[in-house]
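Example record used in the benchmark description.
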Amino acid sequence: MGRLWRVLFLLVLAVLLVASAPVIYFKNYFDNPTNMASKPFLVRIERGMSVRDVARVLTSQGVIRSVFDFALVCRLMDASIPAGEYRIPPRLKPRELIRAFCPRNIALRRVTIPEGSTLKDIAAIVESSLGILESDFLMICNDESFAAHLGIRANGLEGYLYPETYYFEPGTSAQKVAERMVKEFESVIGQSYQSRIAELGSTLHEIVTIASLVEKETALERERPLIAAVLYNRLRRNMPLQIDASVIHGLRDFDGNLTRDDLKADTPYNTYIRKGLPPGPICSPSKASLLAALYPGDVGYLYFVSMNNGQHKFSATIEEHNRAVWRYQKGRRR
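Model output (structure tokens):
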């Protein structure tokens, strides 16, 4: 009997050990950090990923060791992991790691719009930074009803998406991105300048259009009021503005070389063959260009020509301008 009891005791002990092994294993798993990183790390979770897909991403980054264990813990916690790019703290235990996939840890995406960017430029930047299709963003920004919803009296948002650095949560919609950029524009040139716009006898749309032409014509801040003055002086004299950048904006397939035929192309933006302002802005102007459009220089210039060093030569008469063209353009080429 004694021998039988010993055998039964050993058998029960073996069963208990086998049964307790998973408990011991998971207690050890739950009580220890999943990784030994010394600083926070980024994890990007795409839409439609299952818990196992997420576990594979974490495994590939060395965050966890076992896809099965992580997926099992998620199931036990009844946890789901939303899409997004997360900044996860280091040395988290499994439960802490799963809870870390929450809105407060979503890593914001940086989107930088350079001054003078066209709507198409911005759409490409938004696609590369946020994953919003360029075509989707363009469709929203060219929707006149959406522009009206944002308080913009134009047929689209060209010129009203303010050039700045923004931070968006992954998954932000095209509408929200455009709305944020328009709000930034309004904060720069909103109600505070309405009296000045009225004083000039202009509309906001005209001011933004002039500012966009100024933006494309010079990179020098000190020249912008002078460029704006030339535009206003020409408009008052009913002279064509003759702005190359505007002509280019109206061309469908511009190859980088502006030709004489391009200058004859009959488009609404051809300021060589059509007098007055083009139908709208040709880019997103900076604050400096907007201020130049609001406060042009008090000068009589009607012409300017590039000096091939980033600066321009300004002239009040055609004779003076022709001499400048010969000196800085034709004579230089010859």
